[in-house]
């Protein structure tokens, strides 16, 4: 879907920058682990708060990524206990009483930002499993609106956000819509400019 031979590589997953909002299209569980693990560990090592919104991967599976190394397991467990790492169910946050409100979701994230900064964290990282949308009853325009708002949110709050799209379950049309709303794309563990990106002022007009 993205030919990396024709676009510019920006950096690696270890070198995320404040304001980054990435679209990540992964295709298997091995790829998932290769990105999730350094994303979380690097954030915690830099005293950043990490929020992981899970849907298709259980907390047990995610925490299993860190069990082979005692130092990693200890850091993750300590962060879970002190609130530096939160693993939350995505569906309960996004869809309430069968309704998805992009603005309300962004408000939740803004409250989390204020809280973690008050607690002394230097920044916040957010990773979202987007498979929850497959069982939700709303049009694709609401998801586009959310991604556009999230793009502004990441930039304004200087946080790092990765939206996960599992290529095994999303259609090609859905994946294309996801790419349109993200300025940069994650392929394997490398970050590239996204030539398909459409700026927010144009996307919001198209989705209404």
For the record, the CATH architecture stands as 3-Layer(aba) Sandwich
Strand content range: 15-25%
CATH homologous superfamily designation? P-loop containing nucleotide triphosphate hydrolases
Low-confidence stretches: none
**Looking at CATH, which topology would you report?**
Rossmann fold
Provide the domain count: 1
Number of strands: 10
> What is the percent of helical residues?
40-55%
Question: What's the helix count?
Answer: 8
InterPro entries: MEDS_domain
Pfam family, one: MEDS
Domain MEDS: 20-183
Protein name: MEDS domain-containing protein
Write the layout of secondary structure elements.
Blueprint: E1 9-12, E2 21-26, H1 29-45, E3 49-54, H2 59-64, H3 70-82, E4 85-89, H4 90-94, E5 95-96, E6 99-100, H5 102-118, E7 124-129, H6 140-157, E8 160-166, H7 172-180, E9 184-187, E10 190-193, H8 200-206
Parallel strand pairs: 2-8, 2-9, 3-4, 3-7, 7-8
Antiparallel strand pairs: 1-10, 5-6, 9-10
Helix pairs in contact: 5-6
Key phrases:
alpha/beta; 208 residues; globular; eight-stranded mixed sheet; Rossmann fold; two-stranded antiparallel ribbon; 8 helices
What does this entry show, briefly?
The chain has 208 residues and is an alpha/beta fold. It has one domain (25-190): P-loop containing nucleotide triphosphate hydrolases (Rossmann fold, 3-Layer(aba) Sandwich).
């Amino acid at each position: 879907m993205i030919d990396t031979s024709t676009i510019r590589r920006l950096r690696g997953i270890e070198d995320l920058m404040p304001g980054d909002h990435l679209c990540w299209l992964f295709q298997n569980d091995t790829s998932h682990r290769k990105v999730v693990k350094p994303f979380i560990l690097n954030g915690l090592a830099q005293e950043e708060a990490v929020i992981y919104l899970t849907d298709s991967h259980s907390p047990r599976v995610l925490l299993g990524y860190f069990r082979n190394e005692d130092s990693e397991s200890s850091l993750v467990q300590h962060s879970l206990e002190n609130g530096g790492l939160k693993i939350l169910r995505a569906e309960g946050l996004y869809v309430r009483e069968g309704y998805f409100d992009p603005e309300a979701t962004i408000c939740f994230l803004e409250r989390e930002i204020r809280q973690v900064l008050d607690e002394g964290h230097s920044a916040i990282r957010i990773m979202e499993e987007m498979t929850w949308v497959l069982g939700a009853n709303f049009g694709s325009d609401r998801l586009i609106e959310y991604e556009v708002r999230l793009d502004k949110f990441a930039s304004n709050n200087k946080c790092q956000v990765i939206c996960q799209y599992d290529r095994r379950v999303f259609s090609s049309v859905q994946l294309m819509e996801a790419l349109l709303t993200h300025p940069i794309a994650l392929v394997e563990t490398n970050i590239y400019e996204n030539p398909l990106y459409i700026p927010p002022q144009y996307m919001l007009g198209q989705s209404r």
